UniProtKB/TrEMBL annotation:
Sorted UniProt keywords: Amino-acid transport, ATP-binding, CBS domain, Cell inner membrane, Cell membrane, Membrane, Nucleotide-binding, Transport
Any one GO biological process: glycine betaine transport
InterPro entries linked to this entry: AAA+_ATPase, ABC_osmolyte_uptake_ATP-bind, ABC_transporter-like_ATP-bd, ABC_transporter-like_CS, CBS_dom, CBS_dom_sf, Gly-betaine_transp_ATP-bd, P-loop_NTPase
Annotated family: Belongs to the ABC transporter superfamily.
Domain ABC transporter: 22-264
An example Gene Ontology CC term for this record: plasma membrane
EC number: 7.6.2.9
Lineage start: Bacteria, Bacillati, Bacillota, Bacilli, Bacillales
Name by which UniProt lists this protein: Quaternary amine transport ATP-binding protein
Reactions the enzyme catalyzes: a quaternary ammonium(out) + ATP + H2O = a quaternary ammonium(in) + ADP + phosphate + H(+)
Molecular function terms, GO-annotated: ABC-type quaternary ammonium compound transporting activity; ATP binding; ATP hydrolysis activity
Every CBS domain range: 278-334, 338-395
Disordered as annotated region, ranges: 391-443
PROSITE patterns reported for this sequence: ABC_TRANSPORTER_1, ABC_TRANSPORTER_2, CBS
Amino acid sequence: MPIIEVNELSKIFGPEPRRAIARLDEGWSKEKLAAELGLTVGVNRATFAIESGEIFVIMGLSGSGKSTLVRLLNRLIEPTGGELRFGGEDVLAMNAKQLRRFRRARIGMVFQKFALFPHRTVLQNVEYGLEIQGVERVERRSRALEALELVGLKGWEHHLPAALSGGMQQRVGLARGLANDPDVLLMDEAFSALDPLIRKDMQDELLALQQKMKKTIVFITHDLDEALRIGDRIALMKDGSIVQVGTPEEILMQPANRYVERFVEDVDLSRVLTAAHAMLRPETVTSDRGPRVALELMRERGISSLYVVDKQKKLLGVVTAEQAAAAIRSGAALEAVMHRNPPQVEPDAVLSELFEPLSHSSVPIAVVDPDKRLLGILVRGAVLAALAGSEPRDGAGAMPETDSAPEGDIGTDAPEQPAHLAQESARPSAGEADAIHEEERRS
Ligand SMILES: Nc1ncnc2c1ncn2[C@@H]1O[C@H](COP(=O)(O)OP(=O)(O)O)[C@@H](O)[C@H]1O
Ligand SMILES: [Mg+2]
């Protein structure tokens, strides 16, 4: 359910700004409005909804309207036109008193310049926001201590800000934003002043905090990597307009226009795309089937290994054509000959971390959910295709056509080997086929 709904929200700076709205509807550009009417477009008819509990990133170059937009959300800036709802409530209809209460209780803000008071302790800095809201002493102290503990600053309460590193000062700013436990936290370039390594730590911590607290976070950044790392969804802005809203994957794989395409063209896809994106539908056999069924399935599909699952689709192991053939000869059950601990990853593993395991594995890598249910398999061909920018498949991916990515590529260790060759070599050998026929004669 959306917590924030924005409809045609605009902010124009300059005299008699409402004049500009009709011109924007006519398609005037930001430059034309500035040149002919002396008005500056801050935000141009933005329409989007932010879901409760998501990290919604607003990204764009400097001057694109990010700060203006985020300040419209808590009415630190009054809009020139449009609608704004918070939890269904009309924010633009609030009077001054209602607005104060709204800002205190429901929407917090963290700034880039942490704006700490140098002569107040860390604790007093975090308490400050609660103090001006009139929260009484004992309660504000306990809430501030709680917030400091959340951001990992327990033990630093009585230090002055100057004793803290930049990263720690930003945590104090974050604690101040969290102290009154708002539903939504607005963060305007909160990490942009930090050096890269500390910045990455803070991103990780924000993600961890988010997991724990389930806050809705509106995070502003001009940094694409940061946006892709932490955003559940990203809104990309240009000249005050939102040019695309989507998941990181949608922004990368289905850019809405040339601008978005150029914005994202240098991204290292392997650090963004996940196992879920590249996985194929697995061919499976249930453990109660015999090795002959397994081998026949492999022969039919032209693959050389098969995942063994139970009736709930839980992964039990993987069996190769050689193993199945050997089981037929010796009369063993599938479970007796299969590999019991095949390589496996979770669906959100990023592809860059999978090259190594993929290059060492003689069977496709299994993608499993936390309950070990088999969701899909990863083969080199499909991973490379995903990185080459081909369209993502639906969900677990359709069964590949016989001439596309190989379903199983056991025994091939050259990733550039064409799919049809990998399949060719993956077929059961004549010897194995003979074993099937021999088994059939006997039964
Ligand atoms: N108070 C203001 N008065 C006039 N123009 C402003 C004001 N604040 C922002 N702008 C203009 O609005 C546009 C968007 O600015 P801003 O929201 O700060 O962008 P960003 O945060 O993406 O860098 C810019 O052209 C900027 O110059
Ligand atoms: Mg800004």
